[in-house]
């Protein structure tokens, strides 16, 4: 339903909406925001009017805007008004789950424009399923786990209506990861929803915090903020959910903004991956045996379970751990292919038998659909692996459970059909979208043929506000350089690591090195990440250590006075990037180096967030002392007017 009366300007139906919206945006930037004390920049106004083209023509636009351009406010003005004009919410898909809270924080851009423009903005968060508590898992762990007090406290926080049949009169919010911010990631991982939960058979599914929150955010009128991972999961699952009689994860949108849009391809690949586990298949099929099925069906089920167990034995035998990764490489031998073929033959036989079984009405239709959907997924995923159709595959082994992961290497065809065929305004916003001065690479990798684009540089005075420190050191001197920067900035440092192993190694150093005892360290994984960011922003002399804050983090002022990059952020040696490397002539120049430089630029961009910010960016990777060519490449990521020093001046 359109909400013309809620538009922040008087809408004349006889005139172009976009033209009237543009006039209002001009008033906001030239009059309203300056009068409210906002610092308005020419680059921001230029970006705003470039974005207008996307909404007027309902096209994709690549909006490459340097740090400090104020791109968030620019796209919010258009997205909110267009949502009210069309009668559907805008979807803002952020880099990851950790950063969606940043957009709606009390001091964030949405809160600012809501106050200044006197707009009651209806913004709701749509978090991924893994961000919610699973009451079923919690109940099992409360009595069985070695830390019953922790899970007992969480259990006490669950509303009473979950366990009784009292009717709910209004929306009840519970179960969000942020509610349990003090739990570390390992503890949370034991009680949250996971990809192998079968929610369809859960007796509490209609009182589940995740389900209730989903019903709540679907009713948003202005903005729905989610992660790119969750948006892509919505895209890939919407057809199957409709077939099951379920609503898609997200409602139809008026426009879509991909904040830090350069990461969308990775999110798409992750969402399109297929996860295959023997224990899950066994559980689903054994549930079928509880019905009055024919002997033929029962025999096929037994044979499939046996073949699945055998297949995973062969998979374990042919997989080897990838150093520096939590994944295992799978060698696709002729034996693996033969076992897959036999497995698929049995699945086909069961599918045929279930067609006849469905006509006997001995199995509940909903339960039958679940089995059919799972078999269909197995058949398609395994066919990709069997035919070696441009896929990446790997194995994970956690708590004795082996998971086979099959992921398409290239996703542009699916994205073109499922996402970019829609005639909608779609904004890709990032400081790093172009390659060699054009947008061909990102457009091609996403399957986008028709698009708009522009680039606007950062307005900041980097020459006088940014110090760059790249020490000439050996590996053993790295910690000394880090401590030198921390002392120089009196804490107030963001330390960016490329892997969890690096972060954990420094965590031990921070505990034992006496030179660091006067500073408080916050480590990703110890608490929910947005809560750690809040502490860091509001507590002096604090250092925040993270793996997932290279993008999106916005902490202006003295709280963040230095960014320390522990090592150059080259992509990991894992099956995903190995798949990318196999599809190019020069893996280092075409995959590794572009990824590293893009991520490095993002990390550097965390420091200067306003025109008055100043501080130090330190890169303490000892390899730069040994490789002069690499050093020159890294130097080129900084603004040309910035001097790079090997020592810290007093």
From TrEMBL:
One of its GO terms (molecular function) is hydrolase activity, acting on acid anhydrides, in phosphorus-containing anhydrides. One of its GO terms (biological process) is nucleobase-containing compound metabolic process. Keywords: ATP-binding, Helicase, Hydrolase, Nucleotide-binding. InterPro entries: ATP-dep_Helicase_C, DinG/Rad3-like, Helic_SF1/SF2_ATP-bd_DinG/Rad3, P-loop_NTPase. SMART domains: HELICc2. The keyword Transmembrane helix does not apply. The keyword Ribosomal protein does not apply. Gene3D superfamilies: P-loop containing nucleotide triphosphate hydrolases (3.40.50.300). It comes from the Bacteria. Residues 30-305 form the Helicase ATP-binding domain. PANTHER family: ATP-DEPENDENT HELICASE YPVA-RELATED, DNA REPAIR DEAD HELICASE RAD3/XP-D SUBFAMILY MEMBER. Belongs to the helicase family. DinG subfamily. This is ATP-dependent helicase.
